[in-house]
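INFO worker-7 received task bundle
INFO bundle size: 2
INFO processing item 0
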Amino acid sequence: MAALGAGFLGRMDAVSAMQKPVSLTDNLKAQASGTSEALLLKPKPGEEGPPPAADYDRLPLDWNKRTVKRFKDLLAERDIQAFLVRNPLNTIYLTGYWHTTTERPEATFMNADDEAPWYLYPGLDRDLVKSWWFGSGEMYFDFHHADGAFPHEGKVQQGAKVDLFEFMLEGLRKHGIQGQRIGLDGELYPSELKKVARILPGIEFVDVSELLMEMRQVKTPEELALWRRSYLYHDRAHAFARDYILTHGTDVTDHEVSAATTLWINDQLFSDLDLADGAVHHGVKSRVGIYVRAGAVTAVPHPNQPYYNRIGRGMALQVAGMSSIGGYGHENYRAYIIADEDGQFDPHMQKLWTVSRNCCDMQNELSVEGVTCSQVAYKIHKYQVEEGVHPYVYHRPAHGAGVEGHQSPYLALGDYTMMQKNMCFSEEPGLYDSERGCGFNWSDTIVVGERSGYRMSRVPYSEEWCWIRL
């Protein structure tokens, strides 16, 4: 209320008026509008860059069916005729059934010849699961589930607490299991193995989590196109935030820039999506979140303090965020230096900013199939040491990127995973000086290519964009 009373809406309207209305559903490319959006990078002829943005809001069910078919074929090569996944991320990846994860267990099972999945699911998700790709399943009322208690059917009783793992195994036995081996995305505890031996004698569970992760690490063209679509909004959000800072300068806090940008860009996003008046399975996992921090809080890789500081001259500043449409998208950070009262940029900040920016370019050039993650990390860290900024290095250069955010593999000295084309990584060779109260961290999505990587974002890494005077 204080922010509203102090003219927040007026300041937001002033910046919003600079932005040319663009429906990214109808015109899937960023157009010049505000002062900053005119600076967004344009594709260069012959450049290996992101694919055209998708015109869909989520991966179609046909994509999930093809993905399950690929998974089943890989399992068949290992003489496995059925699979059970208990990690919600794997259920979402394979089936497209988006759901909220809590302490309530859910699981997805399919035989080689099953045309639709079997689910273990709680009562509160019964409408979600049955209105998507649903074959059959077993529903328990809630966690903890009492035997025979289903209040929504008028059955209210204080029965014995049900062991939901045994409940699931009984359901699988009733459904029927093809073959003697079930691929599982993990390992079972000894106590669970005893229950399997009793309820499903002769059935062996085989850990196929690594196989499934390898599938998820290498993105398909459909995934990358949806990923790029989310970055159209990410790019516009960065342009809006930069215009807000340039327009209102030291009159505002980093928190206000974050709130104004997040409000503005999500209004653009949700206006373009097929939300079907709030119907389930529409607009799933779609949002842009923008986070701005100014001053000393930039010097901490993972701060435990809030981002609430008045923007001032001579500060480091970061505009960061996450974007997602249909679950696909990732980080996009840019590091700023604000000139001092005399209009000069601090030489120490310039050094840290330039080295970290150069590391971003190195990662992009080095992200080619056939090299290991460790090799890329080694070259970046060696460059940091050669430039004399090693006291300000706090973490690895990047992590793999997926629906869950952080995904293996990692650009870390101890990760020898071989890069494959269409793997996705963050881009975070950050440098932090806690004594001087400044830090510079970046991010984007770098997609592994054949000759070099490419970035999903069109937000510049230039001095023109990032060194500003207020």
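INFO item 0 finished
INFO processing item 1
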Amino acid sequence: MIIVMSQNATKEQIENVEKALTDLGFKTHPIVGDVKTVIGAIGDKRHLNTNYISTMPGVENIVPIMKPYKLAGKELQKNPTIVQVGDVKIGGTEVVVMAGPCAIENLETYLETAEKVKQAGAKILRGGAFKPRTSPYAFQGLEEDGLKIMAAARETTGLKLVTEVVDTRDVELVASYTDIIQIGARNMQNFRLLKEVGMYQKPVLLKRGVAATIEEWLMAAEYIISEGNPNVILCERGIRTYETATRNTIDMSAIPVIKELSHLPIILDPSHAAGTWKYVNALSKGAIATGADGLIIEVHSSPDAALCDGPQSLLPSKFEQLMKELAPVAEAVGRTL
């Protein structure tokens, strides 16, 4: 629910309302506006005496939040969230592109790709050190050695890093190396993992599950935010349908729907959605046109030799061309690249 404080409410009155709510077991989220302050209260409303709170000095009104995702939705926070990653802002006017290989394989190949995606205009470098794979016999990643390679690439290029964590036991380790913690589609409803990354203030890239509804996706974001970390970036990467022409079916409509329901930024992963590099360009342009705040694209200097997801990876030269083609699309919808 939202407690709307009167225009003339004092700091002491606002603090008293917060304390009363906290004593009743609620988590409070005050938002100070130019004219009024509102307090978001998250908790079990059965424990709340609304008559008591509504009669406290400085309280103007109590408004229920109807959506189940209290913190990820727009009822409490109207203004878009801008997630700051160093000097990179995700959710503002700039469309932010993240790029790099699916998996970190060795230092030489990773550094080569990192340099090329930076030259092309990418702001964030992606790469997998821990790889959850369908087959237990497939390449599972270099783990901490991979994280060390990522850190070396950041030192060389200045690019910020995004990489996936798959186990609660590894969150502290991954957070110590990366700039954005990624939660993959398979772990979107791993609630213990969501709560663990929520305890850090590091930005979290939350991918949509293969069969998740938009509401389930936003509820997963709610787990992270409710633990104190508001820096969530949503990532649409395609959902599973009966169609087999692509790896997944991209839900482009999810982008404007999220923009309507949530204040969180949303990006698109066209590589995992398509499963083949040939469709990445078209999907990337479509995402920007429908309002996406960014893209995460797989790029590999030798896709044919890649240990993971080679068929969907762009060559650096094709990624450079894509970046040139995306600029006018962004400009047409009032964005920059």
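INFO item 1 finished
INFO post-check item 1: The longest strand covers residues 27-32.
INFO post-check item 1: The longest helix spans residues 316-332.
INFO worker-7 idle
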